[in-house]
């Protein structure tokens, strides 16, 4: 209820600040009996961690996760799984400049007005670093969903700044630092290189997908599956827009084209993005998000200080020129957490409903 | 937790089906001592109700609200406010056709697979009619926020089908059936007339705004104000996309232009849409949503029946050719419910924090 | 979160005041497909309702329940079940005396200080009348638990004022107005008759039992089954104490006698009251509660008025001289609601765990 | 929702097992700006920790707490406070005996049946060791409540086994290992010494009190202050009964004596235990609990093994012969957590209600 717990039955409580001693989370509600090791979680953390290319922050963090509880002899016990990641590359630099003024577009003004106090070291609690525990928890959810239903999650970048990234294949995604679904990313490398030199930042758009979805997940009125996906995605640092299925394109569509026809062989299209009436249909979940440009840039900006006086702000330090680049594994994790929570909620209320009707195959893409 | 309660401290529990005896909600957590009468609520219900123009469903419902509890001698007592709206224009028609097959784009396939049973009369629980109690609850939230902070909510249509609707002035909105911010809506009337004759439906886009916002609302990590707005909006029937502030445009922006400069006179722009780091800045909240075309159309569609066999579906009855037309008061209500809940959450944790810094004026639009 | 919702997955949201137009509740999270009619619920309401003997309040209320939603063609649909009970015997008497002063032992002082406003008519929200919707919701839970697991709930009175009521048989309970497990209640009738004449009131103790319990219900640390039972029971109007199993007797017991031995034929005793470590063992749940004497009595009492000045208070009107008399069906309902909620929570996390070990029979009473 | 989080607005999420690498908790919702150091928390942990006398478990744990987050420059920031306590005295002994059979009165049978897996090392998650994080969180709540309202919490033992402990003075409590309110505890030392030699265990009763209580805390219907206290106390390991105010004595009382008279000088008595209608009156909170005898005893007991076959169980290792001895600081902490949560909930809904009526003084004890 106090804003740092994600989910209702698969609950992830997140803690930590960018430059405190540690960050982490407690996962409560994980089903018992699943094999789980630190390696299962580390894999996704490594995909998110900083310092892996010159296009992301140069902070050097191994982000090594330690399982503190909830696993006995390699299996989950049904009790809380606490995950700890020690911060190792904090810098004891002088934060007095940042502490006394507000960066345009940054959370520090809002934090100060809300709490009357804030931890200015590296953005404190508002740092994108706090997505690491989310990724760790998502890895646990992904594992269970894959074993139980065969559900799989993936994400890729579809636009960086003003450059569209055409979709070639999911296979390219792991092989470039942009999570781009193309074989040749040299164009985007040049673009980022120039941007970095100019001391500016840019936004990005991403596509997130879940395939092998169970049918019937989602509460129909308020805690709809699409609502919870939008909540999860818009809650990711810097995200300013979320689309599901046809998204904004659906405005100009007709009912005759938007509604996905059903046939014994499967749906004929996927304008729904896998969800109607707030409930999953078994089609792939298709989500698209917009990530704004980083607010921490070295170009000088007009602002005010903590006394309300005019000032100029320059942000030094190690920052991502495009936070969208590292957003793919985080967005995947968030989608997995939403699906996981709804899978447990569905099981609670409906058990194993048998309608006699097989879920129809999810054949068509949009 | 079971999907029919909105909010955590200002909790709205919704019940009812389109053609059952009644719909309504219970509001729990309303502060005591506020003047409240049925007229305060009826005003917004009347803006949403069906049958008010030829461009919406011809169902004739007064949607008269009865306050069953929580108000004594014209003031809220702090106990639950139960609101009841009797359904009066149910039709005892034959639903066997709809009950045996699934409309493309409609929730009935998902409901059937989830629960193994569904109320097919007028869409049952998935009907847009269930937004009426949300609007009623939103009216209570709006009243408190206006009296406490001077916050005000409004919404208008910005696109219908493929037609953009330019923004002229908020003053035009109450004077046409489209909630359009323009003086002359003849072009949209003709468009809708043709669409209705063709037996098809179209989507719409809307803009929702809150002005006079308190600073500091929103929990910073998961229950962010922007996340909860996205949750609320994407949960509205037929919504497929949500933008806050610059939304998808932020992808192609630079950090130097996106981040709203601060000055002693106020913010210089509003790309943030009133929220940074998940917390309100005092700028106006600016939200945009996409509403898909109605799935209940009279044109025949390919589908399957409850045995998985091929069939053709035609939806007769009284339906909105563009559900987006009536979405404005609902979207306002949802935004008010989100802000209300966060106002109470903020007061719980932070009381009246005094930073010594006045909220800077929210001068600029985007 | 705001205090009028019971349960987390089988959620009951209660509304209404003693002399408002109606009371009721919304049940959210009921599994779909269960047969349910108003008669299933009315049966328990009739056991609780006032005016059935001279030992309870003479308010004459049929407490007729109306199902407003969530049931289609006689079966639950998985959507919210709204239950409405119209108040029919409100009295338009003068409440100005009660409204201006505080009854010793009554909630009106606390309500006034909390909210600054209260509905004084018949106790308003603090009236025991608000247990009727709880009983109605409990009837739905009982029905599901009986069909699913064979679980059954019953309660009886074990003490009235200073008189112990020996346990003879559960069969006597429905046949006397005290819910007493004895064949001859003349002694208690005389006692109550004298008490009523004296204008005073007395307390009562009750025993509540669930048999046919599933094994493994309860969350082990905070949301333990015993903790939630204590919460439910202590939340019942006028309850001041709760025991589970051996209760206070366990203080003087030794570990060698308290711990219930296990054998292939079953537990040898039931000091646990059916719960160890917060989790059900399959033994019968055994609960005991103490109900204080009614605070609304006609004997004059020293008190203060709303200005803090000394005054004398006399409560006229129709009141129960021993609220414990009607507590049996309410306590049963609360126990059923707790078990129901934990049954769904267990199914969410653990599905159908198969330990290979049969639950051992629950043979022994304490 | 998954059973390891306590509270709704001041949320404490607990993790860990008795012999895992660490235990701890995350406190979410603490108001910002309060001075907080590890020393503030360590004080209460030291009162609870094992090995301090020969009457408690000889496990030697410093229980040194580390604050991982939520505090910046010695003040709370309003973000989650993560507390970590490393386990240092785990024993790598052979648990195969305990793992294969069930101790009468112990949680291991229930855990096994619930989850199909359990961590047998020192009781795993069911160990009383998991109360340490609760005590740590309670210390934070106590500090805030003391600074804000002057509220103070204390607890003492009132019965050990069959021996009553008369109340002499709160001043004696810190000066003996029993938390007994008497100057001479030699009688109880002898009793415990004999019990320990016999290889058996006994129960205990405790009294817990809060003074300096704010008026108006508690939600009136379900989340009543008394209900939440009962929930908290019955959830403490080994507790089997909870009384508030007159408790079971209220059964034999008359309405004329039970209801605490009000006068301008204060309440004349405290049968209510500080709560009427679920809401605090400003009188002292008075709670009494029964703690059962430890189930881990060295005397042989009849039981079954994991295959359902008869066996005999002996528990070796380091155990408390009377867990009630160390319960006083834990019960205090739990009471503080309940009051804290309700203080924030009250502030959320009611802000600073001004009734014009001063809270009357809480003068009388029961």
UniProtKB/TrEMBL annotation, chains A, B, C, D:
Residues reported in the UniProt entry to bind FMN: 125-127, 237-238, 277, 292-296, 318
Residue sites binding NADP(+) per the record: 48, 54
Gene3D superfamilies: Chorismate synthase AroC
UniProt entry tagged with the keyword Glycosyltransferase: no
Catalytic reaction(s) noted: 5-O-(1-carboxyvinyl)-3-phosphoshikimate = chorismate + phosphate
Keywords assigned: Amino-acid biosynthesis, Aromatic amino acid biosynthesis, FAD, Flavoprotein, FMN, Lyase, NADP
Enzyme class of the recorded protein, top EC level: lyase
GO MF annotations, alphabetized: chorismate synthase activity
Names of the cofactor(s): FMNH2
Record text on cofactor binding: Reduced FMN (FMNH(2)).
Source domain of life: Bacteria
HAMAP family: Chorismate_synth
PANTHER family (UniProt xref): CHORISMATE SYNTHASE
Function of the molecule: This reaction introduces a second double bond into the aromatic ring system.
Subunit organization: Homotetramer.
UniProt similarity note: Belongs to the chorismate synthase family.
The protein's name in its UniProt record: Chorismate synthase
Species: Comamonas terrae
């Amino acid at each position: 209820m106090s804003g740092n717990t994600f989910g209702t039955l698969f609950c992830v409580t997140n803690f930590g600040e960018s430059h405190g001693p540690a960050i982490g989370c407690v996962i409560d509600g994980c089903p018992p009996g699943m094999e789980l090791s630190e390696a299962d979680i580390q894999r996704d953390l490594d995909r998110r961690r900083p310092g892996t290319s010159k296009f992301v922050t140069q902070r050097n963090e191994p982000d090594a996760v330690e399982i503190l509880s909830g696993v006995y002899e390699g299996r989950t016990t049904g009790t809380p799984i606490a995950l700890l990641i020690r911060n190792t590359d904090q810098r004891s630099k002088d934060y007095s400049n940042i502490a006394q003024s507000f960066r345009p577009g940054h959370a520090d003004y809002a934090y100060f007005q809300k709490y009357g106090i804030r931890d200015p070291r590296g953005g404190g609690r508002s740092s994108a670093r706090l997505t690491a525990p989310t990724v760790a928890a998502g890895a646990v959810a992904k594992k269970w969903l894959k074993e139980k239903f065969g559900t799989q999650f993936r994400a890729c970048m579809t636009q960086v700044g003003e450059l569209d990234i055409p979709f070639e294949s999911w296979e390219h995604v792991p092989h470039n630092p942009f999570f781009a679904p193309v074989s040749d990313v040299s164009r985007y490398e040049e673009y980022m290189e120039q941007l970095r030199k100019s001391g500016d930042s840019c936004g990005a758009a991403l596509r997130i997908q879940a395939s092998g979805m169970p049918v019937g997940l989602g509460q129909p009125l308020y805690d709809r599956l699409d609502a919870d996906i939008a909540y999860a995605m818009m809650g990711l640092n810097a995200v300013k827009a979320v689309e599901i299925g046809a998204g904004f394109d659906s405005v100009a569509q007709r009912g005759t084209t938007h509604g996905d026809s059903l046939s014994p062989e499967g749906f004929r299209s996927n304008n729904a993005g896998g969800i109607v009436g707030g409930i999953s249909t078994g089609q792939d979940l298709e989500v698209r998000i917009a990530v704004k440009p980083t607010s921490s840039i070295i170009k000088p900006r007009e602002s005010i200080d903590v006394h309300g006086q005019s000032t100029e702000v320059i942000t030094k330090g190690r920052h991502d020129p495009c936070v969208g680049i590292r957003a793919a594994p985080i967005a995947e994790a968030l989608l997995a957490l939403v699906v996981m929570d709804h899978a447990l909620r569905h099981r609670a209320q409906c058990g194993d409903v048998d309608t006699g009707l097989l879920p129809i195959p999810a054949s068509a893409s949009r």
